[in-house]
Design goal:
The protein is 40% helix and 19% strand. A seven-stranded mixed beta sheet has the order 14-15-16-13-12-17-18, with helices on both faces. Strands 9-8-7-10-11-19 form a six-stranded mixed beta sheet, sandwiched between helices. Strands 5-6-20 form a three-stranded antiparallel beta sheet. The protein has two domains: 3-265 and 462-485, Aldehyde Dehydrogenase, Chain A, domain 1; 270-448, Aldehyde Dehydrogenase, Chain A, domain 2 (3-Layer(aba) Sandwich), CATH 3.40.309.10. The chain has helices at residues 3-14, 56-75, 79-95, 97-108, 112-132, 168-181, 196-207, 222-231, 244-256, 279-291, 311-321, 343-358, 389-392, 408-415, 431-440, 473-479; strands at residues 23-25, 28-30, 36-40, 47-52, 140-141, 147-155, 158-162, 185-189, 215-217, 235-241, 261-264, 270-273, 303-307, 362-365, 379-382, 399-405, 423-427, 445-448, 467-468, 481-489. The protein is globular, with a radius of gyration of 24 Å. Helix 3 packs antiparallel against helix 5. It is of the alpha/beta class. It binds nicotinamide-adenine-dinucleotide. The site of nicotinamide-adenine-dinucleotide has 27 residues, from helix 8 and helix 9. GO terms for molecular function: oxidoreductase activity, acting on the aldehyde or oxo group of donors, NAD or NADP as acceptor. Pfam families: Aldedh. Belongs to the aldehyde dehydrogenase family. The active site is at residue 264. Residues 37-486 form the Aldehyde dehydrogenase domain.
Length: 502
């Protein structure tokens, strides 16, 4: 066994997990029975663990357990008690920050400094939504008929959540916390490539008092678990975070079962720099926007739109800054960029760069990179049309396409020229222009002289190929509940009409 595999086992043991990923069904760790799946360390390339895909029968049991536990969650716990349990969950996660961060860094290849921040964000999410558990109220509607009409916000029941590999524990907390605060049961299927921190999160939550079976984890491949859980009668909604291609398949399956979906999909976000911007700030912001997390972020600023008068100067600044970024072992505190998270993505990013080079791009990249691991060095593609494949496709790697523009109208037109609508940014010292551009660019989140600022209290989501529905903030509470309208006839003599009461 390699040192890294031994470390994997030790970290799993510390978190009360088995030596390989297992599903959690009704509070029990359960081995899969299907095809074998290998977890590969993207830095050392050694095998960390091998485990079996969970079968449809396990997914069905998980949905049954969530349905039963959800009744207890809303029947036996007051809203305030649900909030208290969630506060305890937050503290339990916080106490294990270092172990969770190490496990995430090892398996996902994400720098440990980023993993610590993401675990802290999960703690914040549980605390934020714990506070909402006893504040979910409906409205009194002033209907003209003399009735008292009010609404309740009811839990959906069981929600099925599917998450990707690029920010595993962050995404799990992001979706589990609002779902249970609203009184739902959950079945969550993390990516088969990075399931362990989600399993650990749920294990810790159960130890902290979350009723067993309220949140169940399916460790395995998408199609197996997906087909069973989406069709299960207890599941009332599907929340998918991942690529547009899979999102479309999930939405089709949910549509066939007449179930609503939230889709948090990919992006190709425009980061627009005007010639009146503070270029030092814009250059640093542009690097952070695309190179952090090795570009494996849905909101990555992967299209850098630069005013033509400062285009080559800004590209030079970004290219020379690439040499100051520390690439290395994700477990090393100094590492700013780790490897690409898995072999399939590594090959895809390499192929996109090769394709852009063949298509005439000037490729600016740093000369050195670590010897082992799926490393793609920070890369700028210059000299391509904004309609080129590399400028339109989500590469999901540390690769930015630099595109010149002549004026504000052209910048907006280019920014809106993809099928995505997730995020974007503008760098300018003209406050009027900052707001005009923010409003004109199609995006669910937009930053002015900043990039990647997010918070659990602020809504997040996209349109078109970036999906629909919203996560975070009070919008997530709306997604995880549905309104019920209740009518009471308050007249001395009830108005019982043959037909509608007016
Ligand atoms: P992916 O679509 O390949 O996989 C996402 C999840 O879907 C995984 O858990 C996978 O096992 C599962 N899956 C695959 N086939 C399925 C099926 N038939 N039925 C049900 N589930 C199935 O995405 P990925 O490669 O893991 O992640 C990268 C993508 O995620 C990028 O496009 C990125 O932009 C997107 N993403 C979006 C957000 C957001 O909030 N908008 C956040 C993070 C990542």
């Amino acid at each position: 066994m390699t040192d890294r595999a031994a470390m994997f086992q030790t970290l799993c043991e510390e978190l009360g997990l088995g030596q390989r990923p297992q599903s959690i069904v009704g509070g029990e760790l359960v081995d899969g029975v299907g095809a074998m799946i290998t977890l590969q360390d993207p830095f050392s390339l050694s095998t960390l663990a091998v485990y079996a895909d969970c079968a449809g029968a396990i997914a069905n049991r998980a949905c049954d357990c969530a349905e039963t536990a959800q009744r207890t969650w809303i029947g036996d716990f007051t809203p305030a008690a649900r909030g208290n349990v969630m506060q305890s969950v937050a503290s339990a996660i916080e106490a294990r920050t270092e172990t969770l961060a190490k496990l995430e860094a090892l398996v996902a290849g994400k720098p440990i400094r980023d993993c610590r921040i993401e675990v802290a964000k999960v703690v914040e999410m549980f605390r934020y939504y714990a506070g909402w558990a006893d504040k979910l109220h409906g409205e009194v509607i002033p209907v003209p008929s003399g009735h008292l009409n009010y609404t309740l916000r009811e839990a959906i029941g069981v929600v099925f959540q599917i998450t990707p590999w690029n920010a595993p524990i962050f995404t799990a907390g992001w979706q589990i916390a609002p779902a249970i605060a609203c009184g739902n049961g959950v079945v969550i299927k993390p990516s088969e490539l990075t399931p362990v921190t989600t399993i650990a999160l749920v294990r810790l939550a159960e130890e902290a008092g979350l009723p067993k079976g309220l949140v169940n984890v399916l460790a395995g491949l998408g199609p197996t678990a997906g087909a069973a859980a989406i069709a299960h009668k207890a599941v009332g909604k599907v929340v998918f975070v991942g690529s547009p291609a899979t999102g479309r398949r999930v939405a089709e399956a949910a549509g066939a079962a007449l179930k609503p979906v939230v889709l948090e999909l990919g992006g190709k976000s425009a980061n627009i720099v005007f010639d009146d911007a503070n270029l030092q700030h814009a250059a640093l912001g542009a690097q952070a926007a695309i190179f952090s997390s090795a570009g494996q972020s849905c909101v990555a600023g992967s299209r850098l739109l630069v005013h033509k008068d400062i285009h080559s100067r800004l590209v030079d600044m970004i290219a020379s800054g690439m040499n100051d970024i520390t690439l290395g072992d994700p477990l090393d505190d100094a590492t700013e960029i780790g490897p690409i998270s898995n072999a399939r993505q590594y090959e895809f990013v390499g192929a996109m760069i090769a394709d852009a080079r063949q298509g005439g791009a000037t490729v600016r990249t740093r000369s050195t990179r670590p010897q082992s691991g799926f490393f793609v060095p920070p890369t700028v593609l210059d000299g391509l049309s904004h309609q080129a494949k590399a400028a339109q496709t989500e590469i999901f790697g540390p690769v930015v396409t630099a595109i010149p523009f002549a004026n504000e109208a052209e910048a907006i037109e280019i920014a809106n020229s993809t099928e995505f609508g997730l995020a974007g940014a503008v760098w300018t010292s003209d406050v009027g222009r900052a707001h005009r551009v923010s409003q004109a660019v199609r995006a669910g989140t937009f930053w002015i002289n900043s990039y990647k600022a997010i918070h659990v209290s602020s809504p997040f989501g996209g349109s078109r190929e970036s999906g629909f529905g919203r996560s975070s903030g009070t919008d997530a509470l709306m997604e995880y509940t549905s309104p019920k309208s209740i009518w009471l006839d308050s007249g001395e003599i009830p108005k019982i009409a043959f037909g509608y009461v007016s």
